[in-house]
Design brief:
This protein is 40% helix and 16% strand. It is an alpha/beta fold. The chain folds into 2 domains: 199 residues, 3-Layer(aba) Sandwich (Rossmann fold); 152 residues, 3-Layer(aba) Sandwich (Rossmann fold). The strands form 2 sheets. Strands 5, 6, 7, 8, 9, 10, 11 and 12 form an 8-stranded mixed beta sheet that branches. The protein has a 4-stranded parallel beta sheet with strand order 2-1-3-4, with helices on both faces. Strand 7, helix 9 and strand 8 form a beta-alpha-beta unit. The protein is globular, with a radius of gyration of 23 Å. InterPro entries: BCAA_transport, Leu-bd, Peripla_BP_I, TAT_signal, TAT_signal_bac_arc. This is Receptor family ligand binding region. One of its GO terms (biological process) is amino acid transport.
């Protein structure tokens, strides 16, 4: 019998079906590539420099586990300076350089995600995570390839307002940066507060850096707010606002969202200016890195961190920002591995479908229990409070879902 190419493929496919073994006919790359843009310089360089080591750790961990269906992974990380156009250029360069081997990308801001979104079509589409929790990205219909590794900023406001209501709060102020990041949850938060019977007595916009602290604190004092939610800040302004309010003698309870919940920043502020952050609360989607008794994945990270980052502050601690990146990478890796194990090619459509199908995922540490992707996000978190004497954020609420 003559076995030509057509009959060989037909016979091979039939055999694979009988044996129950997935068969990927397209030649696989020698390695898969995940690209990333991080703000290693610019206004948020501190965050970028704390996130970057997570990519080195992830590359080693994922490859030690066999990569994706036995194919190793390589990370390509470039500086963006927190300029969306730079991130777009980095993404386009990665596409041109890596071709089909590039299976995913990690962007550094809401602005970058929105700028790149129209590019994610046809051969240029890739699964894309980011540092952003932008509410509008949690929409598979308009952003099928972009996802969040936690709750949106609107979800985070919901969690904080629910907690404020439970504590008997009736008057709240919103102080936020004059950025897209800062403005994101304000309108939604106003409506949610109204539903809960909480009066929003002040909505105050500030510069993202170099804000006029005395003026903003004076307005807060005049508002009569019992609680104040700070949104749209990373390393600066939010502690200055709290410090200014304390100097003014305001008894306001301050709350933050994810980017204002980093222990390293709170510890540094305490060391430099005293314990005025005592009682500061905020929402975190994840456990802190030191809370890993029942978190086996965190324990793996800890072992690798000791070896890879010996002699640095990261030897025994992974920043909240690094944890957020790791969660995003773990979700992408699970989606890619699920796609490969199903015998499907690692196209953006196939990977996105696998991602949206993640259900009751035991993350091994990030969350308080199994979680699911819903509208390309994970809408869960809990409220933590900072104690300067211990330097720890400890939970003051149960895990809350939206």
């Amino acid at each position: 019998m003559t076995l030509n190419r057509r009959s060989f493929l037909a016979t091979g496919a039939a055999a694979a079906a009988v044996m129950g073994t997935p068969m990927i006919l397209k030649a696989q790359p020698k390695e898969y590539v995940l690209g990333a843009s991080l703000p290693l310089t610019g206004p948020f360089a501190t965050a970028g420099q704390l996130v970057a080591p997570a990519f080195a750790l992830a590359q080693k961990l994922f490859n030690d586990e066999g990569g994706i269906a036995g194919t190793p992974i390589r990370f390509v990380t470039e500086d963006s300076g927190y300029v969306p156009q730079n991130t777009l250029a980095n993404y386009q360069r990665a596409l041109a350089t890596e071709g089909n081997a590039l299976v995913g990308y990690f962007a550094d801001s809401t602005g970058a995600m929105k700028l790149i979104a129209p590019e994610l079509k046809g051969e240029n589409a890739r699964l894309m995570g980011s540092t952003s929790f932008a509410s509008e990205l949690a929409n598979p219909e308009t952003n099928p390839y972009q996802y969040l590794s936690g709750p949106t900023y609107q979800d985070q406001f919901d969690i904080l307002l629910q907690n404020i209501k439970a504590a008997g709060g009736t008057k709240v102020a919103f102080i936020y940066s004059n950025t897209e990041f800062g403005r994101d949850p304000i309108e939604h938060g106003r409506a949610k507060a109204a539903d809960l019977g909480i009066e929003v007595v002040l909505e105050e916009s500030t510069k993202a850096q170099g804000a006029d602290i005395p003026t903003h604190v004076t307005k807060l004092a005049q508002s009569g707010a019992e609680h104040c939610i700070l949104q749209g800040y990373v390393t600066g302004v939010w502690p200055q606002l709290i410090g200014g309010a304390r100097q003014f003698g305001l008894p306001v309870q301050f709350h933050g969202t994810f980017w204002g919940m980093e222990k390293l920043i709170a510890d540094r502020i305490t060391a430099e200016a005293g314990p005025f952050l005592a009682g500061y609360q905020g929402v975190m989607p994840y456990r802190y890195f030191y809370d890993r008794e029942d978190a086996p994945r965190y324990q793996q990270y800890a072992e690798l961190s000791k070896a890879m980052f010996a002699g640095t502050p990261l030897e025994n601690y992974m920043s909240t920002w690094g944890i957020q990146a790791m969660c995003g990478l773990e979700l992408a890796m699970k989606a890619m591995r699920d796609t490969a194990e199903a015998g499907n090619e690692l196209t953006a459509d196939n990977i996105a479908e696998s991602l949206s199908s993640i259900s009751d995922w035991d993350s091994g540490g990030f969350f308080g229990g199994p979680v699911s992707m819903n509208n390309n996000k994970i809408g869960t978190g809990r409220v933590y409070e900072y104690a300067p004497d211990t330097g720890l954020f400890t939970p003051v609420s149960d895990w809350l879902s939206t």
